[in-house]
From TrEMBL:
This is Glucosamine inositolphosphorylceramide transferase 1 N-terminal domain-containing protein. Residues 249-436 form the Glucosamine inositolphosphorylceramide transferase 1 N-terminal domain. GO terms for biological process: xylan catabolic process. InterPro entries: GINT1_N, Glyco_hydro_beta-prop_sf, Glycosyl_Hydrlase_43_Enz. SUPFAM superfamilies: Arabinanase/levansucrase/invertase. It comes from Shinella sumterensis.
């Protein structure tokens, strides 16, 4: 907790309390604030059609965890404070009083009942945190990972509603809650049933048919040797790409290149469809620039990906993603490239695609954090340290941003001309792996992080798979990956 301890009144609909309300209250309490609950007798719950449909989808998709949209009894926690520092209005009807009030708007609507209709219609809601009904003080662009089901999209949106409100409360407590703009008028029609019948249901049917015939996801890696300006310089894929072949029962993704003893080594996520889990493999290149057979170099009980390999302090290190383990673990090469030893845990949590940067005498990690619920791809966090093994401290402004268009790194930092620094970032507007952009690092310090809006990489040239999500380069060797439609083997309809 960066600021003062607050007395907070959280206003909850008396007839429409949901599990995400309870989670938010628990988060604020865990942050050290004194939280009391006030019930709004005016606000209604979500429509029965919406509740029933979302609950049915939840069962069909075999989701065991409690849905954030599920109805609960109103959480009872104390009585409203006599001297309240802040009110958080989850009902959308609270009049502005003496105490500052924060509320959420979902594409312009204060009522969270807009969420299922927006998601069912295939829209990507923008969340505004509004202070005193007048000014936007925070904004979030939640990622919806799986758009075939309204229930899964609603979960992603409500997850970031929690993140955005907790972040706004902490900013208020630290006296750094800035006004972004005056609020705009309501702009959307939020009827759930028509949106579900005309958009969500056909979308679900198309996805079910697709999954009967195709792998859920299959990636392929491309490489090229190129002495001139690369993708990060031109902003275009260009030509000269060669496909790294796979056998179809697995795919390679998240390519990183490392040069050692005048040889190039390509490290990849090596995902086996049958195991539904990935290991890290290396593809050595011979002196003629021809890739040799891939071989496994790191395997753990959990999924591994994003094998960032680098040299520092006289040793070679790997920092792979292992978000399902709940830890970010640093590995040291004992016998490069084949043998690695876990050296230190740098951070706890569902941390994805942590990307290292040495800057101004300190070390920094840019990554996404799932924050307990929702997507892994929309919440940027930064950590800083004085030494590689740590200790690593979360940045005081975490989360830096909530934005499906630029939160998740997509490759190592790129140092350009005149000392400019760029980060490849994934754009989830079209879904996971939908595209890649380049954001310039404008400011970085213990009190500030500022990345420019990304410039999209144009997927032209001879690379046949334009939906890319990783870019890396070492010397003349440049690597990318792209998602590919691959049919399932005949009579194999297992999930993959």
């Amino acid at each position: 907790m960066n600021g003062r301890r607050l007395a907070i009144d959280v206003i909850v609909p008396a007839r429409g309390a949901q599990y995400w309300h309870e989670v938010l209250i628990e988060r604020l309490t865990a942050a050290g604030h004194a939280v009391a609950v006030a019930l709004d007798p005016v606000a209604d719950g979500w429509p029965a059609w919406a509740n029933g449909t979302l609950a049915l989808e939840h069962r069909l998709f075999r989701r065991r965890a409690r849905a954030l949209a599920s109805q609960i009894d109103p959480p009872m926690r104390g009585v409203p404070h006599v001297a309240t520092n802040l009110r958080v209005d989850l009902a959308g009807h609270a009049p502005v009083r003496d105490a500052p009030t924060l509320a959420l708007r979902f594409d312009g609507a204060y009522d969270a009942r807009a969420v299922p209709a927006l998601v069912a219609a295939g829209q990507l809601p923008v969340l505004d945190v509004v202070r005193d009904g007048a000014h936007v003080v925070g904004r979030a662009w939640p990622m919806i990972d799986r758009r075939e089901a309204a229930s899964l999209g609603v979960e992603d949106v409500l997850a970031r509603a929690i993140t955005a409100l907790v972040s706004a409360v902490e900013a208020f407590a630290a006296d750094r809650l800035d006004r972004l703009e005056a609020i705009a008028p309501l702009r959307a029609d939020h009827r759930f049933l028509p949106a579900y019948l005309t958009s969500a249901l056909p979308r679900l049917g198309r996805e079910a048919w697709r999954r009967l015939r195709f792998r859920q996801a299959h990636w392929r890696v491309g490489y090229r040797f190129h002495d001139g300006p690369g993708v990060a310089d031109t902003g275009r894929l260009g030509t000269g790409w060669t496909l790294l072949a796979d056998a179809g029962d697995r795919f390679y993704a998240d390519p990183f290149v490392f040069h050692w003893q005048d040889r190039a080594f390509l490290f990849v996520e090596d995902y086996r469809h049958a195991a539904a889990k990935a290991v890290i493999s290396v593809v050595p290149f011979n002196a003629a620039g021809v890739p040799q057979p891939a071989r496994v170099v790191l395997e753990e009980p959990h999924h591994l990906s994003y094998p960032q390999v680098f040299m520092r302090d006289g040793a070679i290190w790997m920092l792979p993603e292992a978000s399902t383990s709940g830890k970010l673990t640093l590995y040291r090469a004992e016998a490069f490239p084949d043998r690695w030893r876990a050296e230190a845990v740098l951070a706890e949590g569902e941390i994805s695609d942590a990307t290292l940067l040495a800057h101004d005498g300190r070390l920094w990690l840019f990554a996404t954090d799932r924050d307990g619920f929702g997507s892994t791809s929309d919440t940027l966090v930064v950590f800083e340290a004085e030494a590689l093994a740590g200790p690593w401290w979360p940045h005081r402004l975490n989360p830096i941003l909530i934005d499906r268009r630029r939160a998740r790194p997509g490759g190592a930092f790129v140092r350009g001309r005149a000392g400019r620094i760029f980060l490849p970032v994934q754009d989830g507007t079209l879904g996971y792996g939908g595209g890649l952009g380049l954001s310039e690092l404008l400011l970085l310090g213990s009190d500030t992080v500022h990345l420019s809006p990304p410039h999209p990489i144009v997927a032209d040239g001879d690379w046949p798979y334009p939906r890319i999500h990783t870019l890396n380069r070492s010397g003349p060797l440049e690597v990318i990956d792209g998602i590919v439609p691959v049919r399932k083997p005949l009579f194999d309809n297992r999930a993959s």
